[in-house]
């Protein structure tokens, strides 16, 4: 018996509340909408929160890379022997990434960005498994943090929930192309094995806003392009299924870049030895430090404490945001830039993109959105509630 009803979920990365607030995007299929608070961090923290309904300190994913004694990424260290003009070229890095994806068997999302090669010996990847399928978080034999005895990960994602109930499901993620994924989604509605739960993720708006945020006309064109695809897919589903519940949400917004600071240079001037005195990971909006001695910590605290482009987060801040880890795997001390100010250069890139996210969740440009064809109560005002809304759409009671 093919499924008679469909929970149809669209995940539009970086479709912020500020972009949709004054527009009627998607309203013909999803008349209900809520502003949602996001989590502190990037998509690699927000997406697991949406898919599990848990905060990063519960599902274990915050930064893309965490400090590890024995990193499973360490083979990449060898590329540091190649002259940096070649080994840091983005085309070279892209080839290495493809090769590494095949060789490692890691099915999660990751990128090498401009991370210094030698650091892959000390930093490991958190998302080794495909989080858009069952077993993304729960398998204790999984490589990486799931194996850390002090923090066993036993979190179910929406895919574990539907699979456990034998609900036929399909998903499209960052691995799939824009046009093709929408075509495949519609094609999946036909046939005896059609899904009762379908989640379609697209990174299209995220990529677009990184380059064009602030250009109203261009942004509207991009969102309408996604809207066309979504409306077409919903119509196709309604022609086949007796009942279709539609949910559309994002993970965070996008802020237009206003300035930057060379935090790496500020730290380099302190005369400390990276590795011996301290360890650091420079994200685009956060610098995460580990210290080998108090002299190093005091010097970094004093130098960055003077900057007005950002501030250190306290452990209480991290706990309040649900990103505190007892083992400090993502950093002992975190410096967060002010909204719209970037760390440039960072391990993410040498230039400031026009738009970025990963600032305080309280900033207006950080907010995400959830829209649905049905009313939801209580209001899903945090991105972790997107999990509950998907459960509701899939008619799963817990
Ligand atoms: Zn992004």
Notes on the protein architecture:
The structure is a single chain. With 398 residues, the protein is an alpha/beta fold. It folds into three domains: 5-53 and 155-256 and 361-393, Alkaline Phosphatase, subunit A; 61-150, no CATH class; 258-352, 2-Layer Sandwich (Gyrase A, domain 2), CATH 3.30.1360. Helix content is 31%, strand content 18%. The protein contains 13 helices and 16 strands. It has helices at 17-20, 43-52, 56-59, 84-87, 90-104, 158-164, 178-188, 204-212, 216-240, 263-268, 294-305, 315-320, 385-393; strands spanning 5-12, 32-36, 65-67, 123-125, 169-172, 197-202, 243-249, 255-256, 259-261, 278-282, 286-291, 310-313, 333-337, 341-343, 355-356, 368-372. The strands form five sheets. The chain has a six-stranded mixed β-sheet, sandwiched between helices. Helix 7 (178-188) runs parallel beside helix 9 and helix 8 packs antiparallel against helix 9 (216-240). The longest helix is centred in the middle third of the chain and has 25 residues, at 216-240. It is globular, with a radius of gyration of 21 Å. Residues 139-153 have low confidence and may be disordered. Zinc ion binds at residues 14, 206, 210, 357. Residues 14, 206, 210, 357 line the site of zinc ion.
